[in-house]
Amino acid sequence: MGFLAPWFLAGALAIGLPVYVHLLRRHKSIPLPFSSLMFFERGTQSSTKHQRLKYLLLFSLRAVIVLLLALAFASPFIRRPASKAHDRLLLLVVDRSLSMRSGTRFAEAKQQALRVLSGRHSGQKAQVMALGGQLEALTQPIEDDETLRSAINGLQPGDGRSNFGDLGRSVRALDEANHTPIDLHLFSDMQRSSVPGNFAEMVLPESTKLILHPTINRTEENFTVVSVDAPSQIADTKAARIRAVVAGYNSKAATKKVSLVIDGNTVTTKTVNLAENGTATVEFTGLDVPYGLSRCAVAIEGSDALPSDDQWRFAVRRSDPEHILLVRPASDTRSPLYVSAAIAAASQGAYLLQPMNSDTVTESDPTKYAYVILSDVPSLPIAFENALRKYVQGGGNVLMAVGTNAGRQGKLPLLGSGTGQPHLYTREGDPMSVGDLDRTHAALRETTGWTDTHFSFAANVDTNGMRILAKLTDGTPLLMDKQLGEGHVLILSSGFDNLTNDLPLSPAFVPFLDLATRYLSGTEHLSGARLVDEFVPLRSATTGNGPGASVDVIAPDGRRPLTLAEAATAQTLRLGSAGFYQVRFANGRDGLIGVNADTRESNLEILPPDVQQLWAGSANGNGGSTAVAAQNDTVRVSLWWYAMLVLFLVALAESIVAGQYLGTQREEA
Amino acid sequence: MQRFLDPAILASIGNLELLARTVVDGFVAGLHRSADFGFSQEFAEYRAYTPGEDPRHIDWNLFARTERTYLKRYRGETNSQVTVLLDASNSMKYTSHAVNKMDYARYAAAALMYMAIKYQRDAAGIVVFDDDVRDAVRPSTRQGQLYRVLAALDRAEPAARTNFANPMRHAHELLRRRGMVMVFSDFFGDPEEMVEAIEPLRYHGSEVTLFQVLDPKEIKPELRGPSVLEDMETGQVMEVIPDYAKNEYRRRLQAHLAAIEARARAAGMDYRLLVTDQPLDATLQAYLSLRKAVAA
Questions:
Q1: Choice among A225-234, A352-361, A634-643 with the minimum mean pLDDT
Q2: Which residues of B touch A665 (CB under 8 A)?
Q3: Are residues B124 and B216 in the same domain?
Q4: CA distance A247 to A281
Q5: DSSP β-ladder status, A634-638 and A76-81
Q6: Cβ atoms < 10 Å from Cβ of A277
Q7: What is the DSSP code string of A358-418?
Q8: Beta-carbon separation of A40 and B240 below 8 A
Q9: d(CA B177, CA B179)
């Protein structure tokens, strides 16, 4: 038996406390005057001995509590013979991330896994798992050699990103569930980018022994397209601009050809010079795609270690410009100016703004527009408001700016939500800036510059039932999203007129309107590019599952990844591999999504050997001592929990005895 | 009016006469009757005159008609003699709340004296004793008797131990005339011996009432764990456990109380238990009923 923290045993000196309380202090009892002791007799106080016993019992329990506390803090442990080899689970984890497509890495990993499986002890259970975008269990812990071999042989490389943090979490969960010692064999290229930011996430349980099987021991040169900035929807093919960033990892200075590919045909090629481990930007002007959805890509030519990441796929929808209806008061001439300019800049002509006065909008049909903007409109004609409500409930969307006119009205049009006394920050002091932003929302994702904007006015909107996306620094909700039937209303509690704030002139305005337009027009998921292992919503949460609500998905390999039942009910689709996904959404709209691998997989730098050793060591306790422990065939078993359990029981007994001994004598009813 | 009888409230009144008046007035107001008990001039009976009796009470009108001498008797005409015997031993100092047993007995005796002298015109006296007579005021109806009695009550401070034998012998010599004797004590002693010591007071035809004054915590003691208790009279020290105090002690005390009451009643004496958190009217009630019995 040993102690991890033996200095805590000094706490046992606290036993002096019960000794003082019970043995020293008790002699100082002061006699209580009583009128007559004629009814008390010394001879009849026989139970005093019993009381003394109880008294000593209480003292003993308290002393034991102190000793157990000191013992528990000292973390006692005993050494026990290590479990026999066939008692340990053989866990074979094969890395099937994108980087394993490089050279013979994946084949080598499978061969090594099969060799380890061959050397398995008879009767030892084994389990095969694949580490890609997520850790997949390909078998249960079984002894059947044939099943295990076929699982390894059937493995195919994927396009996901491996993360050793995911592996650590999963093995920890496995250990907690089964309490079986594990021999974990990891067959991987040991990419440095697979290490999470916090090393602690990778740490494995003490009973797990990690054996690393690197498939390569050198870092290879690789070039890739890091990102492509392209419109997902265009109207004017000549005005469209595509900006691509290419990079070299562990590379020397090189000249590379970068091409724009549309539906499999290379339409433009440009040459870029890349510095050593450098990046370069390539810009293509004009995207001559036919009407409808087109499969586009930017590809970097030339051989490297990982050809799979040499192109970046994106889908573009070409259509005639769609109109956005902007309803504003007759006096507001600024909003159309700012909003129109921002949308034109963001969408590259895919959307046109159509401003209308609120008093002449009666006959307009909202369904003809991509979405509707209500810019500081205090009230709407009843007929239009009803048509707009029906439009939103049917799946249409509205962007509502609540400026000085609407904010003082007391009730918002369309929503009916109340508004309180608005905040006039210039009267109260300095203008407010943005405090909190919910960047998980599609309208705010990746936007910057919000914190530099200043708001002098903010309407006090009743946010009941709304998702708050942004707040000012004083906590006033600034941007809210409210679902109304199938559609959404995005509410900005300030105006677009550059009077109540400087948002229209800030760098955040154009990206915000770009994302908001994609979100509100419903084209966000219809085209563009995504990363492997991202999820795409297939239907809104309120869409029924009846006939006609089914979705249709065709994966890059031409197969349909969803079963019929899943197609009728699935809310989201995981984009499991790189390529183009054709999706028919539940609302009947068709989409084409270009899916690309995470660019972190393109960096083939391997984990330094010392870090690998550190990880392998941490999986078995204290690094080097692990090997010693293994040689001696003993494992350390902590007694902390047992000490705490006994402590709890003793404390319980102490409270019962003390309750009987010290409790006030009460009268029976 | 009940609050005028609450000993905890009365304890805040420093003046014993004021206290007694407060108690008696409160008590009388609660009766809803005239305060002059027995002092109406209501005719009761004629009795033949025997030589030696006071000729002032002869009904001369009747003599004129019948030439016989009769004494005319009125109800309540007869004044009684009330004597309080107050135990002032150390055990009477015990208290668990605002009023100790001695004070309670003092208040009760003061109220009794006040009622007897001011309302009933009775001759009242007091004997304060512990193991001997410490102070005594002979019963009298003289002017200023109330103040003498109250002064004796004021002076009475607990000291020494209780012993009924000596004090009762002296009291017997003091009380030659028939009347009412009220003994206030906690009666911690042998019931047989105590009653035997008090019993001679009845030989003159006096009505004797024993008022046993106890604190509520003497009846139901509460101990937080084993405690060391010290006898207030003997100084004896003893370790006592809560279980004993809760069970055996109470059983023994109840047996003691029952024994005193039984022995007292057997000796023709009345017995009342006074608990110091109870109102004082029990004493006055006992006095009035006793007086009625004496007058009859």
A1: A634-643
A2: 222-224, 242, 245-246
A3: yes
A4: 9
A5: antiparallel
A6: 14
A7: TTS-TT--GGGSSEEEEES-S---HHHHHHHHHHHHTT--EEEE--HHHHTSSB-TTT--B
A8: yes
A9: 6
Range(s) of the domain holding residue A464? 322-521
Among the residue ranges A42-46, A69-73, A615-619, the one predicted with the least confidence is A42-46
Chain B: which residues have CB within 8 Å of chain A? Answer: 91-94, 101, 186, 188-189, 215, 218, 220-234, 236-246, 248-249, 252-253, 256
User: According to the model, what pLDDT value does residue B54 have?
Assistant: 78
* A2-12: pLDDT as tens digits: 887 888 888 88
- In CATH, what number is assigned to the domain containing residue A448? 3.40.50.880
pLDDT of residue B122: 82
CB of A620 closer than 8 Å to CB of A206:
yes
- Of residues A32, A35, A38, nearest to B227 (C-beta): A32
**Between chains, do B91 and A35 touch, taking CB under 8 Å as contact?**
yes
Range of the domain at B54: 43-74
Q: B208 vs chain A: nearest CA distance in angstroms?
A: 25
* ipTM entry: 0.78
Residue A374: beta bridge partners?
Answer: A327, A400
Residue A501's nearest CA partner among A399, A402, A409, A377 is A402
Asked if residue A268 belongs to a domain, the reply is no
Residues 6+ apart with CB under 8 A from A50: none
Tokens at A513, concatenated? 């309107």
Facing residue for B91 by CB, picked from A36, A45, A661: A36
Under an 8 Å CB criterion, which residues of A touch B? Answer: 29-40, 42, 44-45, 47-48, 51, 661-662, 664-665, 667
Residue B172, CA distances (Å) to A643, B166, B200 in order: 78, 10, 7
Q: What pLDDT was estimated at residue B111?
A: 87
B227-231 sheet: strands from edge to edge: A32-34, B227-231, B237-240
Closest CA to A125 of A102, A106, A109, A144: A144
Q: What is the model's pLDDT at position A491?
A: 93
Do B8 and B125 share a domain, yes or no?
yes
Q: pLDDT per residue over A490-502, tens digit each?
A: 999 999 988 889 9
The label of the residue with tokens 């009291």 reads B171
In a domain, A391, yes or no: yes
The two tokens of residue B241 are 């456990």
| Residues 6+ away with beta carbon under 8 Å from A470 | A434, A436, A437, A438, A444, A450, A477, A478, A479
Residue A616 shares a structural domain with residue A581:
no
Q: Report the pLDDT averaged over residues B137-160.
A: 86
The rounded percent of chain A whose pLDDT value lies above 90 is: 33
Same-domain check for residues A536 and A511? no
Instruction: For residue A522, give the amino acid letter.
Output: G
- Cα distances from A364 to residues A358, A387, A395, in angstroms, run 11, 9, 17
* pTM > 0.80: no
Q: Which of A394, A364, A395 is nearest to A377 (CA)?
A: A364
Average pLDDT rounded to a whole number, residues B270-278: 88
Together in a domain, B16 and B63: no
Number of other residues whose CB lies within 10 A of the CB of residue B205: 9
Q: State which H helix or E strand residue A335 sits in.
A: helix A334-347
User: What separation in angstroms does the CA of B75 have from each of A297, B46, B296?
Assistant: 132, 11, 9
What are the backbone dihedrals phi and psi of residue A47, each rounded to the nearest 5 degrees, phi first?
Answer: -70, -5
Tell me, what amino acid is at A500?
T
CA distance B249 to chain A (A): 6
Hey, is A623 helix, strand or coil?
Answer: coil
The total number of structural domains in chain A stands at: 3
Q: How does residue A97 score in pLDDT terms, banded at 50, 70 and 90?
A: very high
How far, in Å, CA of B3 to CA of A186, rounded?
90
Percent of chain A exceeding pLDDT 70 equals 91
Distance CA B248, CA B263 (A): 22
